[in-house]
Amino acid sequence: MALFKAKKQVQKNDRFTQLMFGKKAAPQKEKTDWKNLANNIDYGQLMDNVEILMNAYGKIKPGLSKINPLVSKLIKKG
User: Fold this and answer.
1) Tens-of-pLDDT digits for all 78 residues of the chain?
2) What is the DSSP letter of 40?
3) 17 contacts 11 by C-beta, under 8 angstroms
4) Which domain of life, per UniProt (predicted)?
5) CA separation for the pair 14, 6 (Å, rounded)
6) Closest CA to 12 of 4, 1, 23, 27
7) What is the DSSP letter of 14?
8) What distance in Å separates the CA atoms of residue 23 and residue 12, rounded to the nearest whole number?
9) How large is the C-alpha radius of gyration of the chain?
């Protein structure tokens, strides 16, 4: 068991590893200012994007209804 403990210590202080990969960066926490974020939303652009998505879904929907039985058959066989 002493072998495994020594290996962990070597990995922490290994100069070659530090040279090749550098030291591990400390994780940085980002604070999100939700009030400021909510004030910067362009609702007109948001509604335009929702409209584009709904139009695209309306165009794709007939194709999806044709593909659905094929997918369900594949799932039943698998």
Assistant:
1) 555 665 555 456 678 888 888 877 777 777 777 778 778 889 999 999 999 999 999 999 988 888 888 888 888 886
2) T
3) yes
4) Bacteria
5) 12
6) 23
7) -
8) 10
9) 27
- Locus of tokens 């194709």: 63
- The tokens describing 64, both together, are 């999806």
N- to C-terminal Cα separation, the chain: 46
Backbone φ and ψ for 67, nearest 5 degrees, come out as: -80, -30
- DSSP letter string, 52-65: HHHHHHHHHHHHHH
Tell me if residue 21 falls in helix, strand or coil.
helix
The rounded distance, in Å, linking the Cα atoms of 58 and 54 is 6
